[in-house]
Specification:
The protein is mainly α. It has 8 helices and no strands. It is globular and about 65 Å long. This is Elongation of very long chain fatty acids protein. Keywords: Fatty acid biosynthesis, Fatty acid metabolism, Lipid biosynthesis, Lipid metabolism, Membrane, Transferase, Transmembrane, Transmembrane helix.
Length: 249
């Protein structure tokens, strides 16, 4: 069917524009987003979490982890709730990592651990802090804040480019720090009843599940990423060296 020269001309113009957009802005560009959400966002996140960490440590009542919570009449509990609210909001900021990985076309970084961790933590943290926003429930945010200061500083440095990434050799130690965090949380929460702390069954069980579940996930990630993959790479390297060094008659 002949659409006429004017319509064909318009169709070709639109098609040419679409092709030019795809070639110049998709195929030829670096698969990344602008630098500020990758570098600036992480620095902001570290700053917010560090402020939480510093404030709760400076608080003179932070040692009293067995204190009965009364958010309506106790100023200390209210300050706990205020601090943990900001901690809770940072979990949604961290959820943006998934969006940034998609925009950067880093499908390899969208691991099962990453998806499960960032999609479930906000819900679990909300359940904990909604019922008991202070006392023993502040230990996990405290430990998690310190770990994320280290982790997001690593992300901020690695986002500066490949010329910096090649010098970063401590990624596995960041994962180990996260695993140690969950061990400490497990030990701390499990010991609360022995110190006479009034811990609700929901809070106690959620903390243990949260720490134990993610400890298993991080152990599995560490095993596959740093042990199995490293061993396979070593065998592949030996195999390549054997082929390259083989003498031919």
């Amino acid at each position: 069917m002949d659409l006429g020269p004017c319509i064909r001309s318009e169709h070709n113009w639109v098609q040419d524009l679409a092709d030019a957009y795809h070639v110049n802005l998709i195929e030829k560009t670096d698969p990344s987003v602008m630098e500020w959400p990758l570098v600036g966002r992480d620095r902001l996140n570290v700053f917010l979490i560090f402020c939480y960490y510093a404030k709760i440590r400076i608080n003179s009542d932070a040692k009293d982890s067995c204190k009965t919570l009364d958010i309506m009449h106790d100023a200390t509990t209210y300050r706990y709730a205020e601090i943990t609210w900001w901690f809770y909001l940072t979990k949604y900021v961290e959820l943006c990592d998934t969006i940034f990985f998609v925009l950067r076309k880093k499908d390899r970084q969208l691991s099962r651990l990453h998806l499960v961790h960032h999609s479930t933590v906000p819900l679990l943290i909300f359940a904990l802090l909604r019922s008991e926003p202070g006392g023993h429930n502040t230990f996990f945010p405290l430990a998690n804040s310190f770990v994320h200061c280290v982790m997001y500083m690593y992300y901020a440095i690695s986002a500066l480019g490949d010329h910096v990434t090649i010098h970063l050799k401590f990624k596995r130690y960041v994962t180990m720090t996260q695993m140690i965090q969950f061990i400490l949380v497990l030990c701390y929460i499990a010991s609360r009843p022995f110190y006479g702390c009034q811990v609700s069954s929901m809070s106690y069980g959620t903390n243990l599940f949260l720490a134990g579940f993610f400890f298993v996930l991080f152990c599995n990630f560490y095993w596959n990423e740093y042990l199995i993959n490293k061993e396979e790479a070593r065998k592949q390297n030996l195999s390549n060296n054997g082929v390259n060094g083989k003498k031919h008659s």
